[in-house]
């Protein structure tokens, strides 16, 4: 489908969230900058969907710890967004002007950057979450939005009823007109979830914030803006049937990575007609030495497997797995080293970690939730933060949290029970 030429669409990607539910993975970076499927960052999917859909005017709205995200996006060259006209613009909140402040919510972030819409003379504004994983051509949604002369069109997808309280859910009539919208309801009345993909007519978006009280009341799209516009009866749903994942929790993040190991995953990263672009480091090819065993795994450039075993796992660039080590059902991020004889099972290990010889992480049948973060680490995953060093022969259970930059001297015992936390800045649990 050719790009729609008669009208002008700009995209605004909301990438400023702290992502607290990803625990230490987002302690030192914004959630959209977290690694995914080995070589990618989560924000690569929104950026790639835009350019693959023929949308080359893109603003990325950052706020929380933006350094790694800014460094990753740069001038936008990997996405063909380094353009004299249009291209990518990274926008951060700034003080020093009237009514300026840190963003209080999704709508507030857009409100503080309406100048981008006005200067671009856009007729439609595509607003995206920067922390979802999916491949979507926005052009059919945009065409239907214009055909219906909708004020707003919201991309939706059914989710399991047990997960519906994590999303904004909506009720539609027979014509897919939205008649009710609840943001993360305790008792959902629908399982039709908003994907965080909105198309606004630019004049409608601007009018929403021209109301005298808008800068105080229009803070979030789900809580305030969409319910307000539904009352006018011109908000429509666009049903999307392909793969889409909100990777906002550790479990959903781990599952989405593991789904990439299927024979034919729902999200095909190998589709030549829909490339997911990223900023790739110059690394040598993967090296797998004699005696190694690798099965159903993703190995990125620069990985070295030295007579070790990698099973059903995702390895980012530069990971080294030493002799006799086993990595199973795990996500291992950039430049981490797994020592000889170590066994890593159902773990997420952040960048530049050092796992000593003979270490066993994620062992046993005790699934006690982590005492420090019981709502985040409760499904059996063990989490190792960026730059942590785990000494030789440590044995750790499940739902264990090892904080970023932990040193070997911070371990008071080689036996770490399930649900424990190793962090010198946190009092020891008794």
Summarize the topology.
Layout: E1 9-14, E2 35-36, E3 40-41, H1 43-52, E4 57-61, H2 67-73, E5 87-91, H3 106-111, H4 114-120, E6 124-129, E7 132-134, H5 139-147, E8 152-158, E9 168-172, E10 178-183, E11 192-201, H6 202-210, H7 214-217, H8 221-230, E12 235-239, E13 244-246, H9 250-259, E14 287-288, E15 293-295, E16 298-299, E17 304-305, E18 309-311, E19 314-315, E20 320-321, E21 326-328, E22 331-332, E23 337-338, E24 343-345, E25 347-349, E26 354-355, E27 360-361, E28 382-384, E29 389-390, E30 395-396, E31 401-402, E32 415-416, E33 421-422
Parallel strand pairs: 1-4, 1-6, 4-5, 8-12, 14-17, 15-18, 16-19, 17-20, 18-21, 19-22, 20-23, 21-24, 22-25, 23-26, 24-27, 25-28, 26-29, 27-30, 28-31, 30-32, 31-33
Antiparallel strand pairs: 2-3, 6-11, 7-13, 8-11, 9-10
Using brief descriptors, characterize the structure shown.
single chain, 430 residues, alpha/beta, Spore Coat Polysaccharide Biosynthesis Protein SpsA, Chain A, UDP N-Acetylglucosamine Acyltransferase, domain 1, 2 domains, 7-stranded mixed β-sheet, 17% helix
Give a structural overview.
With 430 residues, the chain is α/β, with parallel strands linked by helices. It has two domains: 251 residues, Spore Coat Polysaccharide Biosynthesis Protein SpsA, Chain A (Alpha-Beta Complex), CATH 3.90.550; 136 residues, Hexapeptide repeat proteins (UDP N-Acetylglucosamine Acyltransferase, domain 1, 3 Solenoid), CATH 2.160.10. The chain has nine helices and 33 strands.
């Amino acid at each position: 489908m050719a790009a729609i030429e008669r009208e002008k669409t700009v995209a605004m990607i909301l990438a400023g969230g702290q992502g607290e539910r990803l625990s230490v993975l987002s302690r030192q970076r914004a959630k959209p900058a977290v690694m995914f499927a080995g070589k990618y960052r989560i924000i690569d999917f929104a950026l790639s969907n835009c350019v693959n859909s023929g949308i080359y005017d893109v603003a990325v709205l950052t706020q929380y710890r933006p350094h790694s995200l800014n460094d990753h996006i740069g001038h936008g060259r990997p996405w063909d967004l380094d353009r004299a006209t249009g291209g990518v613009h990274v926008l951060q909140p700034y003080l020093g002007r009237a009514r300026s402040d840190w963003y209080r919510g999704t709508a507030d972030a857009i409100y503080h950057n309406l100048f981008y819409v006005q200067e671009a003379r856009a007729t439609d504004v595509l607003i995206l979450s920067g922390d979802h994983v999916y491949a979507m051509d926005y052009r059919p949604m945009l065409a239907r939005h214009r055909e219906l002369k909708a004020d707003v069109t919201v991309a939706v997808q059914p989710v399991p009823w047990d997960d519906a309280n994590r999303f904004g859910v909506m009720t539609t009539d027979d014509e897919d007109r939205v008649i009710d919208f609840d943001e993360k309801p305790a008792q959902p009345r629908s399982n039709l979830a908003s994907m965080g993909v909105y198309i606004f007519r630019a004049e409608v978006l601007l009018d929403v914030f021209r109301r005298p009280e808008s800068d105080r009341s229009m803070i979030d799209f789900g809580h305030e803006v969409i319910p307000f516009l539904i009352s006018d009866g011109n908000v429509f749903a666009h049903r999307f049937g392909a793969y889409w994942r909100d990777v906002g929790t550790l479990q959903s993040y781990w599952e989405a990575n593991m789904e990439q190991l299927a024979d034919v995953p729902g999200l095909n990263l190998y589709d030549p007609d829909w490339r997911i672009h990223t900023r790739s480091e110059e690394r040598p090819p993967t090296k797998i030495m004699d005696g190694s065993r690798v099965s159903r795994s993703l190995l990125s450039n620069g990985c070295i497997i030295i007579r070790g075993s990698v099973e059903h796992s995702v390895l980012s660039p530069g990971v080294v797995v030493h002799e006799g080590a086993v990595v199973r059902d795990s996500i291992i991020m950039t430049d981490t080293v797994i020592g000889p004889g170590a066994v890593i099972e159902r773990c997420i290990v952040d960048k530049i970690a050092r796992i000593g010889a003979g270490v066993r992480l994620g062992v046993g049948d005790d699934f006690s939730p982590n005492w420090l973060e019981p709502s985040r680490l409760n499904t059996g995953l063990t989490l190792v933060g960026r730059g942590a060093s785990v000494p030789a022969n440590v044995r750790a259970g499940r739902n264990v949290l090892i904080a970023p930059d932990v040193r070997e001297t911070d371990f008071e015992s080689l036996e770490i029970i399930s649900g424990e936390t190793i962090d010198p800045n946190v009092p020891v649990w008794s």
